[in-house]
Amino acid sequence: MPERLRLTSDWVPLRELHPIAFAGGLPSRLFGVEGSSFPALDGYPQGDGSQHVNFIDAGGLVHELYRSPDPAAQWINNNLTDFAGGETLGGPAFSLIDGYSQDDGSQHVNYVAVGGSGHVHQLYRSPDAQWVDSDLTALSAGTPALGGGLDGYSQDDNSQHVNFIDADGHVHELYLSPEPGAQWTSGPTGCCPTGTACCRRGRSAARGTPA
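RE: above sequence
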C-alpha cells in the first residue's frame, strides 16, 4: 500500500485519509485525476460514537464510510444509493453532499447534481430501518439547486433545514417541522452578501470581497 496519495496537485500522507484507505474504498476516484475539481465530501459523528464519511464516487453513487464505536471495529464502505434505490448522479465533479444525524439516531444525507436536474435528494435512515431516497425538491415543489452550495442541519426540536443556492444566486431553505405528518416546504431566505451574482463569481465574492 502506498504511503501517500495524490490529491490533484499535492501529496497527502495516507494516514490522513485512513477512513477511505482502510475501508477498501475508492481513494483514486474519490479525489479525482490531476486537474479536476474536488468531488463532494462530508462527514458527521453520532451520539453513540460512530463515525460517518459520505462521498460521491466517479459513477455518481453516494457512499458512506462507516465505523462503529467498538474500539476494535474496522471501517466499512456502504453504497447508500444502492441500498436506497436512489438516483444515480452524473458524476462527482458537479455534485454536492451534506449529512447530519438527529437525536433519535436517524441519519440524513442530502445531495444534489448541479449539472443535472438540480433536485435536492435526501437519503434517510431511521434506527433499525433501511435507507430510503426522497426528492425534497419535488416534495416541496421547490426551486432547483443550480447555483452551487448545499448545507443542512437539525435543531433541538428535531426540525430539519437544508439550505442551497439557486441559479440566480438566491439562498433557499427546505424545511421540515417536527410535527407528525409534516411535509417539506421550500422558500427563499435572501441573496448572497454581495448580490445575486456573487455565487457565480467565486468563493471570495461569496465572502463579501471582490472576486
